[in-house]
User: What shape does this take?
Amino acid sequence: MNDAPEQAVDLGYAPRPQQVALHQALETHRWVVAVCHRRMGKTVAAVNHLLVAALECGKPRPRFGYIAPTYRMAKLIAWDYLKAFSAPLTGIEQRESDLIVNLPNSARVQLFGADNPDTLRGQYFDGVVFDEFGMHQANVFSEVVRPALADRRGWALFLGTPNGRNQFSQVADQATTTEGWAYLEFKASDTQLIPDDELTAARAIMTPDEYRQEFECSFEAAVKGSIYATELEQARADGRLTTVPVDPALPVDTDWDLGVGDSTSVVFSQSLRSGEVRIVDYYEASGEGFPHYAQVLQARGYTYGTHWAPHDIAVRELGTGKSRLEVAGTFGIKFQVTPRLTGGRNEVEDGIHAVRLLLPRCWFDLGRTKALVEALQHYRRDYNTRLQEFKATPVHDWASHAADAFRGLAVRHKVPAAPRPRRDEDDLFGRPLAASSTYAWV
Assistant: This one.
């Protein structure tokens, strides 16, 4: 046994405050997600953390990995850093043919590419860095690397700059809502690492969405023409995309978009007198009738306030002579018609404006409303390449149904509904109607 005192080694690394924050997060959390603007220094921090962790690991034959989207990228991006920062160490072996650095304590740091997952199979790891995780094959972590961390209880760091709603945005969402995870975000406007004149020059030649994606860490900006990108980005920054428990003391209201031959969407919310709105649940299905949705409501087990539906629910069908409002009532779903905005020439645009006013007051339970949040992020205007401008009408696609249901929620918060008298009959599930079902929150 060697009892000689340890010698401090200068790796030539002087971490910035943002890099220090990243190292500290890894000291206290097993899973860390860091969303970084371009040129923040994330790869340098990752390589140095791997080296120090490998040197300090007390387990036999420690193994640490850096995984880039491709093997070629690993060599281009990280190998020079790994060689340079490990060079001051004595007794090391740098194997460029395998992108491996072997350390004196039998530890190893190795670079990999996610484009060849077979090279990761059969390995064990004490710590792993995923760089530019949004560009990786989606199943590399869950199917290949996560099992390799299990027996040694290894850690993982997920790094990247946003490039759309993909596995990186998903793991970022998980980090904000799951115990044991840490989430870090480094925007250029906050770090001040890039001079203002350089950012101004970049902004002059980039589109606003490109700039916000690359330098302001916006996942929403990656959806070109996203209507609610700014509001959702602020909600994420404020920590309002999180875990929101259902308060049993408050009624749960529902807002619906009723599909005809396509999806029906239901937004579940609780409203406070302060103006805060909690989006606690979301459900969507296609090709189902009211019996199905009655079962869904009952299975949720909430104490309901009011079920709100768009005005066309009252239109009578020629075949039956009944409206969907009447049909729903036969299955115990007593709808109120969402009030309509008046005075505007474009009801959809007025509703979009109402959503933008409401979103700053909303808190979302990301676990139960993830599909809704993603739909709001993807609700967009199409781009006219010939005129180089966005079209006025939003695109009608898979995101439209959820966005329309949420727009109904926003409209009824903007337009006061007339209080209605208490009914003597019971609600959908045989309970007396809550007193709160007779008021409208504004």
